[in-house]
Amino acid sequence: MSSHSTAENYQGPPHVHHMDAPTAYSAAKLGMWLFLATEILLFGGLFAAFALFRWMYLEAFEHASQQLAWGWGALNTLVLLFSSFTAAMAVEAAQKGNNQRVFRLLAITIGCGFIFLIIKFIEYRAKYVHGIWPSSAEWNDPQFNAHYKSFFGLYFCMTGLHALHVILGMGLLAWALRKARVNRYSKEYYTPVEVGALYWHLVDLIWIYLFPLLYLVGHPSWHTPFGH
After folding, report:
1. Which domain range does residue 66 map to?
2. Segment 54-102, tens digit of pLDDT
3. DSSP symbols for 191-205
4. In a domain? residue 113
């Protein structure tokens, strides 16, 4: 076969199909909503388990809940509510192509995430000092109420899992922030900010359920909001 006929039969490299901007936006948003649905199912199962154990061991759960410093929980609630507001404002700024404002608002939101984690560390440290920790000698003492262990086991599981989601959310927002730094957002493209904000709102919503469920269920001592 001649080189001439070979050239005629050559069709060139295969054509790669790229999604247009609206299709890519819809796909990203749908993917995030599906992911959020699985997260809701995960925490929904934990909430159901807590409700069942509380119904079975009401007195022990109420007494154990009084060992939590509701003031720290309330402060963290305010921090996350404010961060949800700044995340929503960042989406609005991205839709207008205001990259500098997006950068500032996302930086504030991520900063709120750090504050939340610091407060949670303070709470965990207080529990560790008082021996309310799975590896502590007091925890393994046979005299330690088994139903208390159920409460605090669920407490550490749910708040620890939530803290991991906060860290993941901060990572998503940092990715979106990096794009704002190089002026990537416009009226046509703001998907990373909206996807990150959606996830962050879920993180906030989960905490809004966790706070009363864990901290207020046992008639807390209002005059000692940050513990003894």
Report:
1. 44-215
2. 999 888 888 888 889 999 999 999 999 999 999 999 999 999 999 999 9
3. HHHHHHHHHHHHHHH
4. yes
